[in-house]
Amino acid sequence: MATSTSKSYYWKGFRDGTPFIFVAVPFGTLFGVFATEAGLNIVQTMAFTSTVFAGAAQFAALQLLQDGTPTAIILISALAVNLRMAMYSASLTPYLGAAPLWQRAFAAYLTVDQSYACSIVQFEKEPGMTVAQRMAYFVGSVTPITPLWILATYLGAVLGTRIPESWALDFALPITFLAMIGPMMRTPAHVVAALVAILVSLLCAEVPYNLGLLIAGCAGMVAGAQAEVMLDRRKALP
Prior knowledge:
The chain is mostly helical. The chain is built from 13 helices and no strands.
């Protein structure tokens, strides 16, 4: 019975994650095109996208690679862009932390914006889910995206500049994040964190090597945490 229930949650996650393929496919295709333009061959491009599996960090690293940025700065910038994954992991730990080690390692690889956005909403909506059910849902939410992301990257790398500019594949990046941000603005602290991060990122737009993103991310986290502390104190007042 438990296995059957886990399967049903897997397919629920699959259904919830499916809409993201409409942005993951053009996003992955665009990365394949950019990677070949940056001088990577198909093997290097596919190894990059399969091992890193983090679109925004991949784009940031490619841009810096094209600019001739030192390797150390490329790595730091890519890690900075991907810093949100550490926050995602910390947020998911209360729900998935009791799973076996191999499952947690697998989940760590599959932790992307879409799987986190779907899962955290589902876990908070149904707090009575078992760890097995949560893990099934989590894996299901990213199943439609993972193979299509890799396939789309391959197609982009093969087709390269033959894809017309009129297709405007670069629309996928902002739309992906806009679609995920809305449902996650559930508390005033979330809103404060988002607004502060946006403001600081605009102020730090001229900081070299995309390091402004790291500054903005840290500022957003600090502001959100402080807002949550202040709200908790206010609730505790008689």
